[in-house]
Amino acid sequence: MTNSIAVEFKNVTKAFGDVKAVQNLNFSIESGQLVTLLGPSGCGKTTTLRLIAGLEMITEGSVHIGGKDVTKLPATDRDVSMVFQSYALFPHMTVLQNVSYGLSMSRLPKNEVQEKAIAGLEMVGLSGFGNRLPSELSGGQQQRVAVARALVLEPEVLLFDEPLSNLDAKLRRRVREEIRELQQNLELTTVYVTHDQEEALAVSDRIIVMNQAVIAQEGTPRQLYEEPVNLFVSDFIGDANIVKAEIIKIEGANAEVEIGGIRTNLPHRGLISGEANVAIRPQSICLSQSGNENSIPGTILKAIYLGGHIEYTVDCILGELFVIDNQMESKQNLDAAVSITLRTRGVSLIPES
């Protein structure tokens, strides 16, 4: 896999009248990587995708694809393919005709178009479905036809706009695994837009988290989950409990921190002694009947059984904590007194508050 830059944004701003949809974006995407633009509705992620595609033209800055400045080029002259949220299949055409559509516009010989389209369907596991109409396929199969149609054009960059939002939860998991496997096998440079944190963590090499038209943080899934740089990222990715803590002292790279009476050592992340914010992941909180000197008492306010885990809301000196218990040896009863301890993993100081 090469490390050349497939997509680069330099000081990109897009304004619609007085409203800046994205503001001064700077990022680059390496060839062969899947990078997800993640964020809440209205954060600018879909606008960013459309700026790569050439479906929107930028107001300031420049966009480069494969080292070439495409800032002023229309969508038709950019080497990208897009898979839309709605799939955008032609209902009156067969599956094979849908997959062939973009190729037939490129004036290739008919037999070559057919061969490539059949190979595209094979790639997404739909051999033998070529003569069906889209209405005769399930949602997951329609999604794969849309992917095949984009793939056969052999684009420099493949773009996905909320590709799984029309699928049910179980199918969503399966199709996202298929997309990821295909992307890795073909070493496709892919830009993927979603508002679903779990989806982003599952498919991405890197994630760009956006908030209010700017980049809040960029990094690997693990970096974003375990080392959020601010309150927004902590809260947006993984349902963190944001609580107040006291940094007692700094020793080397670590800080001795007191969280509601619990003492622990955490990377200081550039902070100094005094009050600080800490992000605690729901899976990092342990509940038990018997406490020790490094625990704090709490009371169960809510308990929701969800098959694979139990979700608790626990009241304590830190406020109401959201807890996910995957062990499930015993279910805590409402109003039960519990002892709260923290795992070291999934607890982090937040640099920017």
Question: In a nutshell, what does this entry contain?
Answer:
This protein is of the alpha+beta class.
Strand share of the residues?
35-45%
Question: What is the rounded Rg?
Answer: 24 Å
Biggest sheet overview: 6 strands, mixed
Q: How much helix, percentage-wise, in residues?
A: 10-25%
Mean pLDDT: 91
**Unreliable stretches, pLDDT < 50, 5 or more residues?**
none
Distance between the first and last residues' Cα: 38 Å
**Structural class, judged by helices and strands?**
alpha+beta
Helix segment tally: 8
- Order of helix and strand elements from N to C terminus: EEEHEEEHHHEHEHEEHHEEEEEEEEEE
**Widest sheet: strand order?**
6-7-8-3-9-10
Q: Report the principal-axis shape.
A: globular
Total strands: the figure is: 20
Give a structural overview.
This protein has 353 residues and is α+β, with helices and mostly antiparallel strands. The chain has helices at 45-53, 95-105, 110-123, 139-151, 169-186, 197-203, 221-226, 231-236, and strands spanning 5-16, 19-30, 34-38, 60-65, 68-69, 80-83, 157-161, 190-194, 206-211, 214-219, 241-251, 254-259, 262-267, 274-280, 285-288, 296-305, 310-316, 319-325, 337-342, 347-349. The strands form 4 sheets. A 6-stranded mixed beta sheet has the order 6-7-8-3-9-10, with helices on both faces. It has a 5-stranded antiparallel beta sheet with strand order 13-12-11-14-20. The chain has a 5-stranded antiparallel beta sheet with strand order 15-19-16-17-18, with no helix packed on it. Helix 2 (95-105) crosses helix 3. 36% of the residues are buried.
